UniProtKB/TrEMBL annotation:
One of its GO terms (molecular function) is copper ion transmembrane transporter activity. Its main location: membrane. InterPro entries: Cop_transporter. It comes from Lactuca saligna. The chain crosses the membrane at residues 49-69, 108-125, 131-150. Coiled coil: none annotated. Keywords: Copper, Copper transport, Ion transport, Membrane, Transmembrane, Transmembrane helix, Transport. Belongs to the copper transporter (Ctr) (TC 1.A.56) family. SLC31A subfamily. It is a multi-pass membrane protein. One of its GO terms (cellular component) is plasma membrane. It is found in: Membrane. This is Copper transport protein.
Length: 168
């Protein structure tokens, strides 16, 4: 069938285009190394080492940001729990006693942070599913560095169940 006829027929052209061998070769199902990656959306494609490096920096920052947000979410959870005394609030930095003395406000703030953190979790998971080795390594290192910076020193302060999976 002629290419012009396919394009004129509407739906057939888009169906043929997505199932073409060129597109099938671009979808990796095993880890690969290299600067050519499409991350999350079609317009986020790296085609040079520079754009790949910038993408890796963004992935690293999002992974560290996940740990930062998880730390704050757990602090709101601690603040809103019935076991936290009002006097313990000054041990929780970046939270103001007057603003969050009401447990419902703290619970609402924790819920908002949970939603944001869940979105970041899924973005990280989908980025890893690009099967690019560099993206995978940078996200794991970003999670570890973020944990070191934001969460490793508060083990005695926050005693809640933790999920080490970035997608949970």
């Amino acid at each position: 069938m002629d290419t012009n006829k396919i394009h004129q027929s509407g739906g057939l052209a888009s169906h043929k285009h997505h199932n073409s061998p060129e597109n099938a070769a671009m979808m990796h199902m095993t880890f690969y190394w290299g600067p050519d990656v499409t991350l999350l959306i079609d317009s986020w494609k790296t085609n040079s080492w520079f754009s790949y490096f910038l993408t890796l920096i963004v992935c690293f920052l999002f992974a560290a940001f996940y740990q930062f947000m998880e730390d704050h979410r757990l602090r709101f959870k601690l603040l809103s729990s019935s076991h936290t005394a009002v006097g313990d609030v000054e041990n929780v930095p970046l939270l103001y006693t007057k603003l969050f003395s009401d447990r419902r406000r703290a619970r609402f703030a924790g819920t908002v942070l949970f939603g944001i953190n869940s979105a970041v979790n899924y973005f990280l998971m989908l980025a890893v599913m690009s099967f690019n080795g560099g993206v995978f390594v940078v996200i794991v290192v970003g999670l570890a560095v973020g944990y070191l910076l934001f969460r490793s020193g508060d083990d005695e302060l926050i005693l809640v169940d933790e999920d080490p999976c970035a997608c949970g």
